[in-house]
Structures are given as C-alpha cells and as structure tokens.
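If I may wish for something, please walk me through the protein I am sending here so I can picture the backbone:
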Amino acid sequence: MFHNRHVTAIIIARGGSKGLPAKNLRPLLGKPLVAWSIDHAKAMRSVDLIALSTEDDRIAAVGRDAGIRVILRPMELANDTARVDDTMRHAVRELESSFSRTTEGRRLERSQSEGTSSRNADPPSPLPLSQGERDKHLDILLMLYGNVPVRRPGLLDTAVSILATTGCDSVQSFAPVGKHHPWWMYQMDAEGRVNWYDDHKVYRRQELPPLYVPDAAAIVLRRDVLMEAENRPAEPHAFFGRDRRGLAQNPDATVDVDTEIDLLVAEAMLKRLESR
C-alpha cells in the first residue's frame, strides 16, 4: 500500500519465444529467468499483491513455488501478435473476479454463523463487508516483464511513488539512446546505397539532443487508464494515458534478455552486483 492506494505487481511471462526459445525458463545463476522478476517484486516495500500471468505450465509452477498468485491466460494472449495491454487487462479482470468470489464467500460464512437456530426465523441478511474486503480492489498496477533479471534496487518503489504523488497516468523507466541516436542513423536500399535517415549535420556525440528509449525495467499504470484504453484499439500506447512520466536510468542499470548475448551480460552483471 502506498498513500492508501493498493499496489499490484503483475509479471508477464509467456512460454513461447522466437529469438531465445523458452527464455523465461532459461537458468540464470541457479534459478529460472522469470524468478528474478518475482524476487524484484517481493523486495518492494509498497506492493500488496504479486501475480504472474502465463500460458505455460512450467512458468506457472515457478510462480506457485514462489508463493504468488498465478493467472493462466488463453493462448490468443500468448502468441507473437498479442499485446501486453490486453494481457494486463485479462490479469486485472481475473484478479478482481477472484476478489469478488472470495468476498461473497466470506459474507455468506459470517451470515450463516450468526443466523438463528430457529426453523421459523427469517434467513440472516448478508453482513456488511469488512474494511479489508472493501479494500480488495486494484488501483496502481506495476507491469514487470519476466525476462528482465537486472533491475536497480529501489527502482520499482520509486516508480510507484512518482505515480502516486503526481497523479499522472503512467511511469516508465528509460535509458539514454547514446551512440544509437536517430540523428546518426542511415537508410539503406537493396543495392547497399545509404542516405541519412534524418540529416542534422551533427558530428560530435556531445552535441546530440538527449533522447531516451524504454528499457523495460519498470512500467507503472493506473488501473482506470489501462481499462479505458480498450475502447481505443487503434492507439497501441493508449494504456499509458496522456500524462506520461519517465524515470531515467543509466544505460547499464537494466538487462532485457532477448538473445544469448543478453543472457551472458545479465549473468556477468549479477555476479558483479553479488560481489559488492
């Protein structure tokens, strides 16, 4: 809980992957890749609920062994064309549906326990919800990719704090583009001829305007903005909302694993962090 707002971390990890097959299950320093994101969520101070969304029984087993909620998503939300915001909305609905079932069950149990033993007595009316049950709703959502094993300590709580204190629609972590700046990119035709993609005549890296790229380490969303964006399917980034905030990181603060090289880099970075 942060500023009286419920915080839910949802880790998304599918079993299929073309670049690095079964990457979320690849071993990394003694545990599956996805387990690192689970540990990052568990280390948070502000998180109230941690869930894992997957279609893969092996990944689901990792989540259950870690003691977190597991949401089995349909295959249409686990293919190469599935959108992450659709996956998040499915997870939200599944979690809130489970809260509703649990709450109704507890209300019935309390009503039955306080019912009269007389055959002629009217059936007991449902008792009001407890404060704890009323608070079982989703508000602030933290989306974590299961293939990101390196995150800066405190990053996730910081991102949640920014959203809660500013009232913005979303917070996302970014890294500087560095030498891969768009002003230094070229187009190439089928015969190998090249032309500037965007010719700005800048020759020194220090003169390039600062630009940032999402680094996949942290995405924090408002539940209402995520759900409303379903009505705008033609806008792929509508779930970020209109008031978007960024959290800049160093280029080496995060590793997003998509290739064998990424996995080697993540292993080296984690070993370095453990040795400190």
User: Anything to note?
Assistant: The chain has one domain: 7-114+124-176+213-275. The longest strand covers residues 212-222. The CA atoms of residues 38 and 66 lie 8 Å apart. The longest helix spans residues 84-113.
